[in-house]
Write a structure and sequence with these properties.
The protein has helices at residues 3-6, 31-53, 62-65, 85-90, 136-156, and strands at residues 15-19, 25-29, 67-68, 79-80, 92-95, 103-105, 111-113, 119-124. It is α+β, with helices and mostly antiparallel strands and 160 residues long. The chain has a two-stranded antiparallel sheet. Strands 3-4 form a two-stranded antiparallel ribbon. A two-stranded antiparallel sheet has the order 5-8.
């Protein structure tokens, strides 16, 4: 969830005018705060991506290189976009129930996954790069979460 969505659109519109009880008027310009919130979200998104990288499984770099931001840098979402990202994130071998196997080695000598639905097998995936593994976001959050919060707060409060 992004910072902006967590605040439920609190900062729009950017200018608020309220008539006072004795005929006066109070005018607030929230545009700087709105910019700070956007800047904080962009910083948080890029920092989370950087901090997750060392926990993302690595064999040939395809998974790490597939990181996208579906709603832009200020959208608060990260997505590793490969056909096997979900399986690696879950950390469990998924198999085709019809063949009771996750795939096969074809005549070309390459590994091919079975098409169609897959189910968890109960067997953990073996990761080959030390320090990487399943649920990499949770691992990065546990290690860097306090820094993420402090950095986002620092940027959101800048100049106020």
């Amino acid at each position: 969830m992004g910072i902006r969505s967590a605040l439920h659109g609190l900062f729009f519109p950017h200018h608020i005018r309220v008539a006072g009880p004795y005929g006066g008027e109070v005018s607030l310009d929230l545009s700087r705060l709105a910019r700070n919130i956007t800047d904080a979200q962009i910083w948080l998104t890029t920092q989370v991506a950087a901090d997750c990288t060392n926990f993302v499984p690595f064999q040939n770099g395809t998974l790490r290189g597939s990181l996208t931001y579906p709603n832009g840098l200020d959208g608060g979402q990260l997505e590793w976009n490969t056909p096997y990202a979900h399986y690696l994130y879950e950390g469990e071998v998924y198999i085709n129930p019809k063949y009771c196997a996750s795939g096969f080695i074809g005549e070309d000598g390459l590994w091919h996954g079975w098409r169609g639905p897959k189910v968890p097998s109960g067997r953990p995936i073996t990761y080959h790069t030390e320090g990487t593994g399943d649920h990499w976001f949770e691992k990065a959050k546990q290690e860097y979460g306090a820094e993420w919060i402090a950095g986002a707060k620092r940027i959101a409060r800048r100049g106020l």
